[in-house]
Specification:
This is Glycosyl transferase group 1. By secondary structure, this protein is of the alpha/beta class. The chain is about 45% helix and about 15% strand. The structure holds uridine-5'-diphosphate.
């Protein structure tokens, strides 16, 4: 193993080894895990650091010979919402450095994820020579435009995000829209490269629609509209449910709305699910709607393939993995015309884009696609092609690997200069 090809991926609150689809476990966890595993296949030695949230969790999870998740104890070993994690970060940094000392490991590269890890990366940089690459996953400056209550941590977050953009060796924006937002709302300084998120094109797209429907017990004649994602008000599930309530199809055809995603009773995702169920009942949609709960990536390809279309009604989405998973499965996407979705979904070619929270517009888009099966198939085919060309994990990991290699060369040159 080339000792120079070693990287630490840091994801304080997004455990890459955890079950996806629950509160605070979503795209970032998938991103870090997939990037880590794909990099390991390309010859990198990958250590992914996260915070331990339960005493029963293993401290080290080996995913493949060169890729592992390392859980550090920082604060109590329980779930702590991300807005309350900042005070535990100095301990996280200490624990990471201790792990390095115990195992005699040096990282010349760290790729940090989300602003909490950005801070960790910047701290590490004070103690050791390393290059920091950062992916935001969400920008405070955008998020705080759409929330009614600004948390106490907001000022710290905005400051960290600005400093990170100005000082990291490279920022990875996952879409041109995210890059624009960084320039517009965060800082005009700093180096940014656009490298999108990816998806497993062998997994998503591996099953035909008829086979998937057989497996899920859905008749061939049903019209299936799918949502996949966390229960969070900003995901806009309400808009989808109301659009289905207005659609011409309930009563005309056997329409089925499937809402996939995990929730825990009494937690914020459980409360949102109850709210959504309340709207479903109010609109008389209960008999058309199912909530299968959290579904893992082995099972999800069946849901995407069985669907006539997948709806991503988020108020904002920095990238939106669900859209490309559906597209890879040959399923058109109706999505909000925001953030990364503007980049992944080609309007009128692989699906349709609608103004966020505009249930009338979502209703029209859903009805247009459901009423034209030939067009639906054409959109689905083009969607699959778009993902194959632009968003496969291996392609994405190759682009990241090239970026790391170039920064690694710089780092090694600098080290040589220092020791000369
Ligand atoms: N997901 C899953 N099972 C579920 C719900 C969601 O595996 O029951 C996955 C989904 O397939 C996707 C991720 O969670 O890979 C959500 O990522 P996205 O970027 O769409 O949204 P985020 O959660 O980051 O806001």
């Amino acid at each position: 193993m080339n000792a120079g090809k070693r990287i630490a991926l840091i994801s304080v609150h997004g455990d890459p080894a955890i079950e996806i689809g629950k509160e605070e476990a979503g795209g970032q966890n998938v991103y870090v895990r997939q990037v880590g595993e794909a990099l390991a296949r390309q010859g990198w030695q990958v250590d992914m650091f996260t915070r331990k949230t339960n005493p029963t969790q293993s401290s080290i999870v080996q995913h493949s010979p060169n890729c592992r998740t390392i859980r550090l104890v920082a604060g109590s070993e329980t779930f702590i919402p991300r807005d309350q994690l900042f005070e535990y970060l100095p301990t996280f940094v200490d624990q990471l450095r201790q792990f390095q000392r115990d195992n005699q490991i040096q990282y010349s590269l760290v790729h940090t994820n989300y602003w909490l890890s950005a801070w960790v990366g910047m701290e590490l940089k004070k103690h050791q020579p390393l290059k920091q690459i950062h992916t935001y996953h969400s920008l405070g400056a955008i998020k705080y435009q759409s929330v009614s209550e600004i948390p106490a941590i907001a000022a710290t977050r905005l400051e960290v995000e600005k400093t990170c953009l100005e000082t990291a060796d490279c920022i990875v924006a996952t879409s041109p829209q995210e890059q624009e937002h960084m320039r517009q709302f965060v800082s005009s300084q700093g180096k940014i490269e656009i490298i999108p998120c990816g998806t497993d094109i062998d997994r998503f797209g591996s099953v035909s629609s008829s086979e998937a429907r057989l497996r899920l017990g859905i008749p061939k004649s049903s019209l299936v509209v799918l949502y996949v994602g966390r229960f969070d008000q900003r995901k806009g599930i309400e808009t989808l449910v109301k659009a289905i309530g207005k659609s011409i199809f309930p009563g005309l055809a056997d329409i089925r709305l499937i809402i996939v995603g995990g929730s825990r009773s009494g937690q914020s995702d459980g409360i949102e699910r109850e709210r959504i169920e309340g709207i479903v009942d109010e609109l008389g949609l209960r008999e058309f709607t199912t909530f299968p709960g959290q579904v893992d990536h082995d099972e999800l390809p069946n849901y995407y393939a069985a669907a006539n279309l997948c709806v991503v009604p988020s108020h904002y989405e920095p990238f939106g993995l669900v859209a490309i998973e559906a597209m890879a499965s040959g399923t058109p996407v109706v999505a909000s015309d925001v953030g990364g979705l503007k980049f992944t979904v080609a309007d009128e070619k692989t699906g349709l884009l609608c103004p966020p929270q505009d249930e009338e517009s979502f209703k029209e888009a859903i009805d247009r696609i459901l009423s034209r099966p030939t067009w639906q198939k054409k959109l689905g085919k083009a969607a699959r092609q778009r993902v194959e060309t632009m968003f496969s994990w291996n392609g994405v990991a190759q682009q990241l690997s090239d970026l790391y290699e170039s920064l690694n060369e710089e780092a090694l040159e600098e080290l040589t200069l220092i020791s000369a």
